[in-house]
Amino acid sequence: MILKAEAVTKKYFRKSSESNFFYAVSETTLELREGSITEITGRSGSGKSTLLNMLAGLLRPSSGRVLLGETDIYSLKDKELSRLRNSSIGVIPQGQTGLDSLTVIENVILPSVLYKVSLNSEERAMELLEKVGIAQLAHSYPKELSGGELRRLAIARALINSPAVLLADEPTGDLDDENTKLVLELLRNFADDGVSVLLVTHEAEAEKYADVVYRMNAGKPDQIKGRPG
Amino acid sequence: MKKKTLPFKNIIRKPARTAALTIIVFLMSFTLLGGTLAVMSLQRGLDSLETRLGADIIVIPDTAKSKVNLENIIFQGVPGYFYMDKSYVDKLAQVEGVEKVSAQYYLASLSAGCCSMPVQIIGYDPETDFSVTPWIKKSYGKALGELDIVIGYNVNKDVDSYITLYGLDCKVAAKLEQTGTELDNAVYANVDTVKRLIAAAKDTGINELSKKDPEKIVSSVMIKVEDGYGIDDVAGDINIYVRHVQAYPTRSMISGIADSLSGISGVIRVLIAAVWVFVFVLLCIVFAAMVNERKKEFAIYRVMGMSRAMLASMVLYEGVIISAAGALLGCAVSALGLNMFSTAIENSLNLPFLLPNMGALAICAAVTFVLSVVISAVSSFYAAVKLSRVDPGLILREGN
Ligand SMILES: Nc1ncnc2c1ncn2[C@@H]1O[C@H](COP(=O)(O)OP(=O)(O)OP(=O)(O)O)[C@@H](O)[C@H]1O
Ligand SMILES: [Mg+2]
After folding, report:
1. CB contact, 8 Å: B293 with chain A?
2. What CATH number has the domain bearing residue A203?
């Protein structure tokens, strides 16, 4: 499925000499195509996470629309949007996002049981944990994991419902070279299976895997690789 | 892993948080129920004392010692006795506004060898009595025979057993209901029995009795006032026109106590209200802090597709489980505690203290339970709903 940002902006209040607000993301239109990885790089504070969160339905844009297929996701009721995100949008947020009172495998399973009784989610969760290389930690608690292991937990969790769109905010943040490669290859495989992937990263290596690359500069993404969106 | 188990995992795997919340709700329900029951018990104790005394006016000899003795009998449970001439009974019956008069006879048994135990013995005249008989009837259908006695709730003897008083074996015909007053320690008998006891006591040489003929004395006279006459007025008339006796309206005698009681009840009520306001504010702060502490966690639930409503209902569910546990504990501990220590409380306050019956107690406990659960559930729910209105995208970045 295609996820598209149509002229989205995000305005925040911030006092300066000229005005009382600034654009964390200025008018941006971009498209995440099926089967391709779209990479966004850029300096810290340039608006990458803000854009990703707007695409994920987690942050309402100040203007513009976000379309999943034909659906304007911010026109949906919270209930419908939540359900849509659960089934179709996998999100790996920036930072550590393990749920403390659940084991690793319970963390991974949780999205798959929110709206249905799922019989094989445990197997599927195990498979994903194996793919990201932390199967041996399935019954540990997030507190016992390293930063890199937690990143991989978040990746497995975002994939449990086989989403059509995957939005990853610095998924290789705490990873060593070997695991970075592993994760990038994993994302590539998903894209090849038809998933639309957005990858926000500082990793130079990532460009090799991406079909389209944007560099974000003060809220404005400039395309530096791939077909024009 | 099922969705339903999530609240339980959050409760069990955060024991410190769970314990803190449970304790707060426990304290809230404990003070509310304990305080309410204490106030009710004091009130009920006084009411039952008034009904058990059963007369509008009590007339006793006009000596300081008699008054002290009577108060000791009623409020301290110290057995005592005093006597006046029997002729006063007829004089009192002549006073305008007096409907019924009935004499009572007081005698204190001894801890010495002649008696099984030291108790207050209260004799009444079945011919004229209106104050004691209604109570005895509740426990014992027939008239009391000679040397039959009826014992108060706290007298440690079984029905049909015998108590030796001044060398006479008296049969326990019945045991009275509890009043929560010192009268629970008294023994009741009819006038013939008491006269025999007085005669027997004389033989043991109790000073006061040695000069008196049991046929010619009484201890007090119970008076029922005719409808249309004021109790205080009639008592006043007696005090003016009948010499050497003193009339006390029952209510005013108790109200000396009642005044100090209403002081105590007032203090307790204020304390309860203060605790509630304090705990309510505390709960709101605690739940707001808890929700705040968990806001990243909640944002993660939203990221994986939990709706606002699901999140709020999960928080509500957790809140209800925790507060139900706390409230249950609080109600149980205060109800059991009051039951176990009601005698100790009665003795330390020196006030009648009668716990509400099981039905009323259950209703109070249920109301307290529901109130505690609702208040804590509402305050956690409110905090969660307020937070869930913020875009998860904003919360996520705060956590980093
Ligand atoms: N809620 C907010 N209120 C005010 N300013 C905000 C808010 N959220 C983000 N900003 C600002 O918007 C800009 C973009 O933030 P964003 O998190 O998108 O950056 P980023 O590109 O993801 O940076 P990083 O690489 O460090 O993650 C920053 O300057 C940030 O300070
Ligand atoms: Mg970022």
Report:
1. no
2. 3.40.50.300
